[in-house]
Amino acid sequence: MRYDVMIIGGGPGGYTAALKAAKNGLNTILFEKDKIGGTCLNRGCIPMKALIESARLYQHGKHSELFGISSEPSFDYEKIEARRDEVVNTLRTGIEKQLKAAKVETVMGEAKITAEDKVTCNGETYEGDNIIIATGSVTAKPPLQGIELCITSDDVLERKFKRPESLIIIGGGVIGCEIADALNALGTRITIVEMAERLIPTMDKELSQRLNMFFRKKGIESICQARVSAIKENGNKKIVYYQDKNGNDQEAEAEEVLIATGRKANVAELCANDIGLKIERGVVHKDGKTDIDNIYVLGDAGAGNIQLAHFAEAQGENIIDMILGKEITNDLSVIPSGIYTDPEIASVGATEEELKAQNKEYRVSKFLTGANGRCLIENSESGFVKLIICDDVIVGGQIITPHATELIGELAIAVQKKMSAEEFGKVIHPHPTISEMMWEAAK
Fold first, then answer.
1. What is the pLDDT of residues 367-414, one digit of tens each?
2. Which of 60, 285, 429, 431 is catalytic?
3. Would you say the pTM of this structure is higher than 0.90?
4. Does residue 101 share a domain with residue 159?
């Protein structure tokens, strides 16, 4: 049998593309070497948020007397993991049922591209008119002495994990900060060692400063501008050796060390033969199209792509549009992002740093949580909504509030539609809500 579309990788981008292809009448086959749902569902976004929710509820219980409620909460980490796994399994089963109902043929096994129209898996060869690479990413481990002593986010989020009393996290990006916040809330003493000058270095500087302030209040230590040289074991402890920002040799000790230094495209074993596919830190492409006309790439597997599940899903839908010869569905120029710390952080569009680097004139309109009734009711930390306005158009926004990740989609619409602050400010928001902070900032 010859297929219209062959998709390698069953993560958010891969299964979304498969479902859209099948629903549009394309004979579709999907290859997945591990579990349907990819990193996001099985060892990333979903289990991370399940852990965070348990940690958040525990912390709320510890501080419930502020709300006039007396309690003495406790937690069972094994039950937290069991609930995490239940959520993951429920979602994975749902996706598998959707694929089956759409008549997508699913093959479990490691697939390799052997020719422009051929894929092998489990010793079988499959032929098709189009190939979509959706192999995602894997944990990037720096070449450090003693790296084998470290755990990764996979160990925390997918496997049975003995929560340590103390943990050093190498890497202060999104993954490192989310794990730090969640495990700290459950009683683990956390130290973050970050090479950049600040936490979450790819995001707005003011968000980073506020997050660092929250972490200090919670007892999370952040060591920035630090270069790790080695990890060694000493009895039941592990020692991280590093140089501080002044070049002085330092060391930190903990029960476990977690590597959270980012992820890299999972394309090392993609091709069995040299078919001319250009790979440079991911499959090289332009808007999902590679140098080979009938081969496409989406999500984390693509060189330079944004490593977010919703980006991969949107790109997967667009690639099916290309194959069908239809108008592209999704605008990939505006991609919101979020960090699920407590309080949450979210961002979309331009930041002040980016506009300064481009020598563009802009203005900022900000509204603080201290003036918002719902934030005071929830006893939230001091945060803000910030709008970035350029030529009277909202070009970016940053939020650090409770439920920020639920709010950022609204600002994404404003940026994508190139709304002015005046236009946005005319849209009445309900009271008392956190969302009205965006309204107030626009006004």
1. 999 999 999 999 998 999 999 999 999 999 999 999 999 999 999 999
2. 431
3. yes
4. no
Mean pLDDT score, 211-221? 97
**Cα 355 to Cα 150: distance, rounded to the nearest angstrom:** 38
Same domain, 196 and 212: yes
- Specify the CATH number for the domain of residue 163: 3.50.50.60
- Are the beta carbons of 11 and 38 closer than 8 angstroms? yes
Q: What is the 3-state secondary structure (H, E, C) of the chain?
A: CEEEEEEECCCHHHHHHHHHHHHCCCCEEEEECCCCCHHHHHHCHHHHHHHHHHHHHHHHHHCHHHHCCCCCCCCCHHHHHHHHHHHHHHHHHHHHHHHHHCCCEEEECCEEEEECCEEEECCEEEEEEEEEECCCEEECCCCCECHHHCEEHHHHHCCCCCCCCEEEEECCCHHHHHHHHHHHHCCCEEEEECCCCCCCCCCCHHHHHHHHHHHHHHCCEEECCCEEEEEEEECCEEEEEEECCCCCEEEEEECEEEECCCEEECCCCCECCCCCCCECCCECCECCECCCCCEEECHHHECCCCCCHHHHHHHHHHHHHHHHCCCCCCCCCCCCEEECCCCEEEEEECCHHHHHHCCCCCEEEEEEHHHCHHHHHCCCCCCEEEEEEECCEEEEEEEEECCHHHHHHHHHHHHHCCCEHHHHHCCCCCCCCCCHHHHHHHC
- Whether residue 329 is contained in a domain is answered as no
Q: Could you give the CA distance from residue 239 to residue 193 in angstroms, rounded to a whole number? A: 12
Same domain, residue pair 224 and 153: yes
Same domain, 116 and 20: yes
Strands 227-234 and 221-223 turn out to be unpaired
User: Would you call the peptide bond into 343 cis, given omega within 30 degrees of 0 as the criterion?
Assistant: yes
Examine residue 334 and state whether it is found in any structural domain, yes or no: no
Same domain, 134 and 26: yes
Residue 70 pLDDT: 87
Residue 150's pLDDT band (cuts 50, 70, 90): very high
Q: Which residues contact 108 (CB under 8 A, 6 or more apart)?
A: 31, 32, 33
Residues 282 and 159 in one domain: no
Question: Has residue 338 been placed in a domain?
Answer: no
Let me know the angle formed at the C-alpha of 296 by 294 and 297, rounded to the nearest 5 degrees.
165
Total domains in the fold of the chain = 3
431 is catalytic: yes
